[in-house]
Design goal:
CATH superfamily of the largest domain: NAD(P)-binding Rossmann-like Domain
Helix content: 25-40%
Structural class: alpha/beta
Distance between the termini: 25 Å
Number of strands: 22
Strand content: 25-35%
CATH topology of the largest domain: Rossmann fold
CATH class of the largest domain: Alpha Beta
Shape: globular
Largest sheet: 6 strands, parallel
Number of domains: 4
Number of helices: 15
């Protein structure tokens, strides 16, 4: 697919990196010549220097031949204008990065009236991900499928866990729950386990089930934690605003510590129910004075990865029950795996997941459609939800009789609003949604799971 990406900043580079691996024909447009040169030299892509909202520049980038344009410059207005102009140039689909909270309330207008195919707000999407984790504080990560009917929840296996030394097939029988342990991460390597896989201390496992079943599982293994009722946020960014608003709406007490006095004033006006503290978030004396030892969760959302890490480590020392750390640099992920900071969020990763899901859905044949896609375990695993609109050559056949490729797990079938954790005797049929979990990055269509 020919894709134009306008804006090669942090988000733009992350999107380029992901889509190049998907073997798309990428053209990068940026106003800075050195940025374009760097991207062209790093990736096998074409580059055009200029304003991404200019008709002439977009035609130079051959917009009339492009299926998709993604506008992700720092300017919301430029991104929206770039999408509008590119539609006039002949681009079929457009995605705009829109960050302003005021614009976030107008997404339907952008789609229905202006013809922007999709808008992405990295800060809002990141806040939503953090909020989901805070609702399930025993988890490292929470992802939703089938309109929130089922979830994938990640957790670590601590010392003295009853799961240590047990085979996966025995765990499901022992706890008598409709769930799957669908992924195991061990020594930075991801596995799609079979029933004979034996769990060890410090493994990270990903459990797939409905929320009630997951709650029961956490309770039975002694890792169920109550929802956070008091949350301290370090940094007054857009993510902090969106997150605080969601928490307040759910009756959670919020305290935000922000260094910039003017930003504190703005947040005080936007979030009258929150406590806004003017001060340095890494100041241990201030953190103690503001009651860090008594909060249920601490979230570090400053613009500096190193500061977020240091504050998070201090919170761990103070035994804060849940610590969530935002980072922007992918290369820090492996380093953090060696620390106790196990709940990491990366806005770039959240955004690329959303865009990759949309790109995959454009690529699919008529047989099946990508509804949801997440990359897990440092992008080693994909969890994909497909929809089957009509009968195909693989519908009506028992799963045990289908030649399914290795390292692929059919995790569930959603049929008539019911969730089926399938056995070999189950089968697929038209109108089903199917969740597939795999380490195979070549799954573009449901038919691709077959040999």
């Amino acid at each position: 697919m020919r894709i134009i990406i306008v804006g090669a900043g942090k988000i733009g580079k992350a999107i380029i990196n992901t889509l190049v691996k998907e073997n798309h024909d990428i053209i990068v447009v940026d106003i800075l010549a050195d940025v374009v040169e760097d991207i062209v030299n790093t990736y096998d892509v074409k580059g055009v220097v200029g304003n991404g909202a200019s008709y002439e520049i977009l035609m130079e980038a051959e917009a009339n031949k492009a299926e998709l344009l993604i506008a992700c410059t720092p300017s919301d207005e430029l991104n929206i204008l770039s999408c509008l102009v590119s539609k006039k140039c002949g681009v079929k689909h457009t995605i705009a990065r829109v960050r302003n909270p005021e614009y976030s309330k107008q997404m339907d207008f952008f789609r229905n009236e202006l013809g922007v195919s999709m808008t992405v707000n990295p800060e809002l999407a990141t806040a939503e991900e953090i909020h989901e984790i805070l609702k399930f504080p025993g988890a490292l990560k929470v992802e939703h499928f089938a309109n929130h009917r089922v979830e994938i929840v990640g957790l670590s296996i601590p010392k003295n866990s009853p799961l240590i030394g047990k085979r996966i097939m025995d765990i499901r029988k022992e706890y008598n729950l409709k769930m799957l342990i669908c992924i195991v991460e061990r020594d930075k390597q991801a596995y799609i386990p079979d029933g004979s896989f034996v769990l060890q201390e410090d493994d990270k496992i990903y459990v797939y089930a409905q929320k009630t079943e997951i709650n029961q599982f956490f309770k039975k293994i002694g890792q169920l934690k109550t929802k956070a009722k008091q949350v301290m946020i370090i940094g007054g960014s857009k993510i902090s605003y969106y997150l605080a608003q969601k928490l307040i709406d759910n009756n959670v007490a919020v305290k935000i510590i922000e260094l910039d006095k003017e930003r504190c004033q703005i947040l005080s006006e936007l979030l009258p129910e929150a406590d806004i503290i003017h001060g340095e978030g890494s100041d241990q004396t201030l953190l103690q004075a503001e009651g860090i030892e008594y909060v249920d969760a601490l979230v570090t959302l400053t613009g500096f990865d190193e500061e977020n890490i240091i504050i998070s480590l201090y919170a761990k020392l103070k035994n804060v029950p849940k610590v969530i750390t935002k980072i922007n640099r992918y290369d820090l992920t492996d380093i953090l795996r060696e620390t106790e900071l196990d709940t990491i969020v990366t806005p770039k990763e959240v955004t690329t997941n959303i865009i990759l899901r949309y790109v995959r859905s454009l690529q699919n044949t008529i047989d099946s459609e990508v509804k949801t896609l997440y990359q897990l375990v440092n992008n080693q695993v994909e969890a994909i939800e497909f929809y089957i609109p009509d009968s195909t050559k693989y519908t009506g056949i028992k799963l045990k009789d289908l030649a399914i490729k290795p390292n692929i797990l059919v995790a569930s079938i959603i049929r008539n609003n019911k969730v089926i954790i399938p056995s070999g005797n189950d089968y697929l049929q038209a109108k089903d949604s199917v969740i597939v979990i795999t380490t195979n990055k070549q799954i573009r269509d449901l038919e691709d799971i077959l040999e």
